[in-house]
Write a structure and sequence with these properties.
- This protein has 584 residues and is an alpha+beta fold.
- The protein has 11 helices and 40 strands.
- Strand 16 and strand 17 form a beta hairpin.
- Helix 1 (10-22) packs across helix 6 and helix 2 crosses helix 7.
């Protein structure tokens, strides 16, 4: 946080700072040889350092809506009705994950008061309600215009000297953190004299190091760093650090496929799904429908209230004619929103339009491909989760490690110039379709049939992930004995007792089994451990679509593991968290 919010709070901080200083000073009785290196506490150079070591409160804007303070851990919030406790920076990502689980812009987050907030000078105050929090946040200068300097950081420890009015050194202070240094400054009067023990080193936002040897070099280094990076000091947590320039560049880089459209609270997705939008640098945008017909309009962008806006204008496609707020931007997805029930979600199809069929053929042949998701006519076929494709010149096989189906495949292009994978596999009709490619990555492929609810997502696996140490470690632990379910809870509903007296064994060739009691029936299943295209570790469990263990069939997020405990989680399309814990 960059700006001092409550000057009345200086009194308590001043006392604490003086106590801190008195504990670390020693009477040295010497005089400063170079009096030019002494500084008044109110000097510009000291103020620059003070702003550099101020507390930055922008990391938790998703909770408090302000860059000028942060909320002290732990605290509890309700996210779309789900109560969770925030214990660390990492837990904040869970809030955004819950928001993003449902493509709805009316996300609701409630804070359980009272909470403690930490101001720029590290003062802590108690907030007892929503109105008090809003009042404090309104004092914050958002948009990067505040005092805090974030593009350069002090490398500790550093030493400072204190002096009396006659420039006689009276003490030495060693500080080890931003908080200690800011508290030290708070204990000084405007005319108190100090000096820094040079050299002092800094780390820049890009990881480079800077060393200074004089007050002049110190001030110059900080001044140069003030505007060297984007401090992201706004209360729009979901902008993912993008700017107008980044949006402009991303729009013209690739074609964009329409995934979802709402206009005036009416869902228009079926009409526009899979339309392609091509943005050009001259401000024109061309839309190609599913039959290959083209329509042309215009586009422009601007910034208002720290938000990036995209304006679309067409003569025919009137449902697109709005100035849209860009509320989320990723490399392969853009979400547009406007009040009144208006929304557009677009996916990048940079590598699936006007590509040679050999491009996809070679990618498919390089490695094996595991089914992450397959949906046919709106129904997800969960029994195929974790099954593995192998594409060769002779044909394609689909295996669960025990049984294998044979089929044929070919790559073509459709009227829009998009790559299409046609699979024919008589023994498994669930995958026998002409699948248009909607996302192409070296490690992940997504296919969707336009205007229908058909979807296929494949995850690449090379050499059985033998070169991924984390994957191999998790596999080895899971295969190291028998397990039982210690917890299964979906939201507030705990169903652990439903799985009592069942033993889980994870075997070779991705096969698993569940045994009831000592002599009861045994249920076969499929399991895998993979790292997905986002770098997340996933545990695939497939115990069928029906039966006593159907709720366990899913691609679970890996949370933690040791020799006697495995913890997994899943967030469904409604934002509900399911926790699954195995113990020996």
């Amino acid at each position: 946080m960059k700006k001092f919010l409550n000057y009345a709070l200086y009194t308590g901080l001043l006392v604490a700072a003086l106590m801190f200083t008195s504990c670390q000073t020693e009477e040295v009785g010497g005089s400063m040889n170079d009096e030019a290196e002494t500084l008044m506490a109110g000097s510009n150079t000291v103020k620059l350092v003070e702003h550099t070591v101020s507390n930055d409160g922008s990391f938790d804007n998703i909770v408090d809506g302000s860059s000028c303070f942060d909320v002290r851990f732990p605290y509890t919030v309700s996210v779309n009705g789900l109560e969770i406790t925030i214990n660390s920076h990492e837990d904040l990502a869970l809030i955004e994950e819950l928001f993003d689980a449902v493509d709805d812009d009316e996300d609701i987050l409630d804070i359980f008061f009272p909470i403690t907030v930490i101001l720029a000078d590290y003062t802590e105050i108690t907030i007892n309600g929503k109105e008090d929090l809003r009042e404090l946040a309104e004092k914050c200068i958002e948009g990067g215009g505040d005092d805090d300097i974030e593009c350069i950081d002090v490398i500790y420890p550093i030493d400072l000297f204190t002096f009396n009015p006659e420039s006689v050194q009276t003490g030495t202070v060693t500080v080890n953190s931003d908080k200690e240094l800011r508290r030290f400054f708070a204990g000084l009067g405007e005319t108190d004299l100090i000096s820094f023990n040079f050299p002092i080193s800094f780390e820049m936002y890009d990881g480079t190091k800077v060393t200074v040897n004089t007050n002049a070099e110190l001030a110059d280094a900080i001044e140069r760093a003030k505007n060297a990076c984007d401090e992201d000091d706004d209360d729009d947590y979901n902008d993912d650090d993008f700017s107008k320039e980044r949006l402009d560049a991303l729009l013209v880089e690739c074609p964009w496929s329409i995934k979802e459209v709402e206009r005036d609270n009416q869902n228009q997705t079926d009409q526009y799904r899979e339309y392609l939008m091509n943005f050009s640098e001259d401000g024109k945008v061309t839309v190609i429908d599913r039959m290959g017909n083209s329509l042309t309009g215009s586009w422009s962008t601007r910034v208002a209230d720290w938000k990036v806006l995209l304006k679309l204008e067409f003569d025919v496609l009137v449902d697109f004619n709005l100035e849209w707020f860009v509320y989320e931007l990723e490399k392969d997805m853009i979400k547009l929103y406007q009040e009144g029930g208006n929304k557009i979600i677009m996916n990048s199809v940079c590598d699936v339009v006007d590509q040679e069929p050999d491009t996809l053929r070679e990618i498919l042949r390089e490695c094996h491909w595991v089914i992450k998701k397959v949906k046919v006519d709106g129904e997800e076929i969960r029994r195929l989760l974790g099954y593995e494709f192998e594409f060769t010149a002779e044909g394609v096989t689909l295996s669960n490690g025990e049984t294998t189906s044979q089929g044929s495949w070919e790559i073509t292009t459709n009227e829009q110039g998009r790559l299409v994978m046609a699979i024919t596999m008589g023994e498994e009709p669930g995958v026998s379709f002409e699948w248009p490619l909607s996302h192409l990555r070296n490690d992940r492929l997504k296919f969707e049939i336009p205007g229908t609810d058909y979807e296929l997502i494949l995850q690449r696996v090379c050499n059985n992930s033998a070169d991924d140490g984390d994957v191999m470690e998790i596999r080895n632990v899971m295969m190291g004995g028998s397990w039982m379910i210690a917890k299964y809870a979906k939201g507030d509903m705990d169903s652990t007792s439903n799985y009592a007296n069942h033993t889980f064994d994870f075997g070779a060739e991705h096969r698993m089994s569940v045994t009831t009691g000592d002599t009861g029936p045994t249920y076969p299943g499929l399991w895998r451990v993979l790292r997905n295209s986002d770098g997340k570790l996933k545990v695939y469990l497939n115990l069928g679509e029906e039966g006593p263990f159907e709720d366990l069939t899913d691609d679970w997020d890996f949370v933690s593991i040791n020799e006697g405990r495995i913890e997994l989680k899943d967030i469904d399309g409604e934002g509900t968290i399911t926790t699954l814990v195995f113990e020996k």
